[in-house]
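<discrete_fold_record>
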Amino acid sequence: MQLEVVHQEPKEIVDNEENVLEENRRAPLAGAKDFKGPTNDRQRAVVDAVLHSWKGYKEYAWGHDNLKPISMGYSDWFGLGLTLVDSLDTLYIMDLQDEYDEARAWVEKYLKFDINREVNLFEVTIRVVGGLLSAYHLSGDRMFLDKAIDLGNRLLPCFDSPSGIPFSDVNIGSLAAHAPKWSPDSSTSEVTTIQLEFRDLSRASQNPVFEKVASRVNLKIHELDKNEGLVPIFINANTGQFRNFATVSLGARADSYYEYLLKQWLQTGKKADDYLIEDYQKSMRGVLNQLVRTTPNEKHVYIGELLNGKDFKPKMDHLTCYLPGTLLLGYKNGMPKTHLRLATDLLETCYQTYMKQPTQLAPEISYFNVNGESETDIYVKTNDAHNLLRPEFVESLYYFYAITGNRTYQDMGWTIFEAFNRYTKVKNGYTSIGNVKNPLNTRPRDMMESFWLGETLKYFYLLFSDDRNEIDLDKYVFNSEAHLLPIRDD
């Protein structure tokens, strides 16, 4: 299991390779993108949050997946250094050279995939393959690409299913793939949120196999019957069919299906006759026709769910707050004005899910008043009051600022960043909390997810940039874990 390797101190790694690192500093790699670091106080505050998080991770969880900042320990999900790999491009974009160098040295020496380990295709693709590819494209460092190719090859057995819809899990040592242990079905988002990464892996490695297997999944999903473009949240890898009467949602288990329809179209140069963008447009019409509602008193526009595929439920996951940004990105690239209107309305509702809580942090799930059953138009159930340091709303704010240049979105983000600092910062990092409804008893959960560094703080940093084009959205597309992949015309 190589646990003794994982426990190597970062200082030892850096010392061993000091000469190489100095060489890297003197001579940027060919194709490397240059970032200047923070240019204002808000960006510097985000860098401080990154360094505080990194310090705790380095001290107590180095090489492990997630930091447990309160108990000063770690949590391993796949044992692939998720926080470290997710952070590579964040550190690079913030010009944190020393931290980037020590992370790179660990990846080169200790990130190995020939191990007896069960992993989830989707999670490892968006975090590890995506993180390695993004680091490769930004730095020009071939080592990251070689690691990504090795991992990509070990994920390919997932596609050896009777239907071509991939199994959700694979042992990257034995190369045996299977459905999840808890169900015969995969989440729809799991099988449709790997295409950006697999296509880029093919283009970067000049090996068509990755793009081929992932594109085949696109086509199979495209050919299935849908409800006005809307998809159930479960699909079976053996039959290749959606689960009957499964929930329809823009939140958990389906969210990034819709995101990747648009982003794949952008990634491949916006072809006019691409069924992916047609599926995206059709699904957004379905959202507008079937899922959008407005609360009776305060007129909050929100997106609900269809239980059993038909019964409306006024519930919206925080995960759904990625959608305003995706809709605006689509509008920037020619989608209709109805998308802009919905994006603007939803962004405001998502903001209110933060502002209506005494902590000014959003819960995991919000409910909405339909017929006066609640005194308030937005309410939170006790079991849904946790905040996991999620990025989705900050992601949407970033797109609104980057595309419109309106600095109001920066101010909205700053309010939320200060709330994170107030209620989730602890001595050795940041922690998810169990209760956004009570500032005096937030119930810290002792977990810093890898997406805090990989996504949330990265989007805050870019949101607060003086240059809204710090990342050129005509040249790069962000994957679902905020890793950058280049847009190609072919």
Remarks:
- The CA atoms of residues 162 and 238 lie 5 Å apart.
